[in-house]
Amino acid sequence: MVKIAIITYSVYGHITLLAREIAKGIESTGNEVSIFRVAETLPQDVLDQIHAPPPPKDIPVISADEMKNYDAFIIGIPTRFGNAPAQITNFFDSTGGLWQSGGLYHKPVGLFTSTSSGGGKETTLRSALSWVTHQGMLYVPLGYAKVFGELADISANQGASPWGSVLS
Ligand SMILES: Cc1cc2nc3c(=O)[nH]c(=O)nc-3n(C[C@H](O)[C@H](O)[C@H](O)COP(=O)(O)O)c2cc1C
Asked: What's one GO-annotated cellular component (predicted)?
């Protein structure tokens, strides 16, 4: 059995929604999955101004050190101007100890994002690859081989990308 951590940042819940669906898929394969969120960096008065709901109580904040307990990762990164939000890069920056010890070396990692217009979805996912590469992790993209029909289907707005799942 493989232990998988889904690591998220979500202000309005779209990434959390996707994470819960991905977790159901992993559970259906008989593997173990836990959903986490990274620490918030915005002060509460700013969160109030942007009408951010409170974070889900059942999703704990993960520390870099806790990544040692997992075999593989799926990281949910909402799109911010075609990039990862500072909360995610703040978390990546906290993994220097794991980088030094090789704690994430050759552990598989997949990525997913969420956007409003779809603009910047792939650059957001690509932006995480520098961290993935420096850690020596194994990036597992969605690709086309198993999902060509779905990705090529333009009859509905589904937003997905070979780089990873996308909620648009
Ligand atoms: C500062 C900021 C920048 C954003 N930039 C983009 C963008 O480049 N493209 C896009 O389609 N949506 C953009 N959005 C919309 C978010 O990506 C979208 O609301 C997000 O997927 C919501 O995720 P969440 O509900 O998990 O927080 C932006 C939102 C904010 C607050």
From this structure: plasma membrane
Biggest alpha carbon distance in the chain?
48
CATH placement of domain 3-167: 3.40.50.360
> What are the structural domain ranges in the chain?
3-167
Nearest to 104 by CA among 77, 126, 75, 73: 73
CB 136, CB 102: distance < 8 Å? yes
Q: Which of 162, 81, 88 is nearest to 117 (CA)?
A: 81
**What's the 129 CA to ligand 1 centre distance in angstroms?**
19
**Distance (Å) from CA 93 to ligand 1 centroid:** 22
